[in-house]
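Page header: ASSEMBLY MODEL / two components / 480 residues total.
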Amino acid sequence: MDFTFLWETFLHLLSGVPLTLNLALVSTALGAMLAVLLTAMRMSALPPLGWASQFYVFVFRGTPLLVQMFVIYYGLGQFRPVLQSWGLWAFFREPYWCAIFALSLNTAAYASEILRGGLQAVPHQQVEAARASGMWGFLLYRRIILPIAMRQALPAYGSEIILMVKATSLASVITMLEVTGLAAKLISQSYRAVEVFVVAGIIYLALNFAITRLVAFIEWWMSPHLRPVQTASSGAALQHA
Amino acid sequence: MRDPSFGELVGFGPEGWGAALLTATGMTLAVAIGGFAAGSVIGAGVTSAKLSRNGVLRAFGDGYTTVLRGIPDLLVIYLFYFGGSAALGAAGRLFGAEGFIGMPAFITGVLAIGVVSGAYQAEVFRGAFNTISRGELEAARSVGMGTWLRFRRIIAPQVLRYAIPGLGNTWQLVLKESALISVTGLVELLRQSQIAAGSTHRPFDFYITAALLYLVITAASSHLFRRAEARSLRGVRRT
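Prediction written out in full:
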């Protein structure tokens, strides 16, 4: 075991972590906003809006993310004069923005389905009870529907965030040097695939473990009604323990 | 010389790449099916490890699914491509061959997809196994069925029935993952589109065509899986 090499690899790959997290967080946040819009369209009373949203989800879930990235990064280059005249070329020229764009569009499709599942899982009696006590519109959403729906959707959304962290690795194919990009470069220079793979794998596992714990904590924080009740005797038992 | 139209580019005429794209689509299907099949075998093995009474095997099974579902697929592909080439080179030197021996890209693809999808399929199989009632397993044992017979007659048919929706999702993942194999140079759909885009300077036309072909495959296979699911549930009483 060459520990010097492993340690140097670790330090080298660690320098890619900020970019990996940056890509994952920015595109998850943008994707979440788009997902809310898509879900609102899907649940709206206007059929064409619902169809558009369904079609969007069908296209983005039915094609590989790498192909979506290539269409945006390499494909749109074909329309360079048009994009330049619209002032959008500065955006589509940068691999960073293309990666963010593709990742956001992609995760929005998955997240909107998760969100829809959460909204559909809100018990109808709760909505009726809220209406009966005079809540309407925004207040109904803020107090009753959204808290229940978000709690229902959180576990699935947590898996989606993990998938996003993994998906940022595809940005390395369009020249971004995040963790996988650095690892691939290192492997092709040193031909020590196994060592580099192990170190990169540990970094990704650590990131995903941290995210899993964070999501579990938010879930715990959002479901106070499911926690065991703190009684005087249990408090006393804790003090004795 | 005027630019060829989109139809001429992706069509079957003298300037068309249609035949090449369809061949590459066949390669995409081949590598995806091969990887999915390898993943089924690996998944079945990992599931039996996860369900075993042996603590070491259980820990291995849990570790396998946690690790392989937590790291990017692209890393696994690089591991098999570069690592496989290094191993082949070392084996070659043992027999006196010199220099770099490249890992065949198709085998890399099947192995990498198989190893990753094996982790997902293991979770699908385990979930399906848990729906089999204990009573049925005990009944099979009490009428004297051995391990293999029980697996063949009682476990496999029911696990497969309940696993179909989950396997359908995994197949969609595998199909999309197969596009990543293009980084190893295997001429599947995405790589062929890259080649065509490079030689015609019309990247958008070809990547959109590739996206459409992927869409056709995923739509057709989700239709087939829905049919299979309906068929497998013929004998199940609906409550």
